[in-house]
Amino acid sequence: MLDGKKVMVVMPAYNAAQTLEQTYYNIPSEVVDDVLLVDDASHDETLEIARRLGVRCFQHKHNLGYGANQKSCYTESLKMGADIVVMLHPDYQYSPKIIPALVSLVASGEYDIAIGSRILGNRMHRGGMPLYKYLANRLLTFIQNLLLRTKLSEYHTGFRAFSRRVLETLPLMENSNDFLFDNEMLAQAIYFGFSVGEVSCPTRYFPEASSINFPRSVKYGIGVLLTSVKFVLHKLGWAEFPIFSPDGRRLLNFSTRIPSL
Fold first, then answer.
1. What is the pLDDT at residue 16?
2. Separation CA 208–CA 119 (nearest Å)
3. I need a labelling partner for 115 at 20 to 30 A (CA). Which of 173, 194, 196, 200 fits?
4. pTM for this predicted structure
């Protein structure tokens, strides 16, 4: 807990058995009140390890996708009374030791969202980020900063903290069930006027860390550009898209309980 706010870490998991334990033991217990893992029908021992660690677990009966996993993570965290929710990949790619910094930005009330940036601090190459990913990140971020009229160091990190109000307000049920979910969520936050702070975060690239392949990266990049175009068109009133609509489907309005384990 920080400043009287309940802090919860949520981990969208899929085949994370090799890295889950290391990730969990690096979560700072002095700040985090509870940890929730949603398993997207893994084929390995992710659930068994999570139960042994004492992590609260939920499971999808079928693989629904990274975005759908996050929808479940945030829905359950809201039901459990979280005031600040940190989304952390259980693959140990992002350092859990940065969680206090992310949470502090949100708990201060100065920011509604905090993201762990791989670009700030210029440490992405030291962590092994592939060159094509770095170049794509820089190009897409440049385009999005122009179209969304803001200035973030990157839009593609998977390490984030959100206030409860953000999760209750954004029409997240309108978002993709795939990897594009992350980018759509940031675009929505900017559209709805939420403030976004950034913290430099070291990142590791290694065989056990989750990563999308080149074809899916291309698909993701196209989706990012389309999301930005939708943002502009909706902002200008030339078209309407559910992901930017105040009447879009929200988490607690369209949620169904998933089995706990």
1. 95
2. 22
3. 173
4. 0.91
- Location of structure tokens 């030291």: 126
Taking only the tens place, the pLDDT of each residue in 133-176 is 788 888 999 999 999 999 999 999 999 999 999 999 999 999 99
One-letter amino acid at 244 equals F
Q: Mean pLDDT of all residues in the chain?
A: 91
Three-state SS sequence of the chain: CECCECEEEEEEECCCCCCHHHHHHCCCCCCCCEEEEEECCCCCCHHHHHHHHCCEEEECCCCCCHHHHHHHHHHHHHHCCCCEEEECCCCCCECHHHHHHHHHHHHCCCCCEEEEECCCCCCCCCCCCCHHHHHHHHHHHHHHHHHHCCCCCCCCCCCEEEEHHHHHHCCHHHCCCCCCHHHHHHHHHHHCCCCEEEEECCECCCCCCCCCCHHHHHHHHHHHHHHHHHHHHHHHCCCCCHHHCCCCCCCCCCCCCCCEC
The CATH class that applies to domain 7-244 reads: alpha beta
Q: How confident is the model at residue 3 (pLDDT cuts 50, 70, 90)?
A: confident
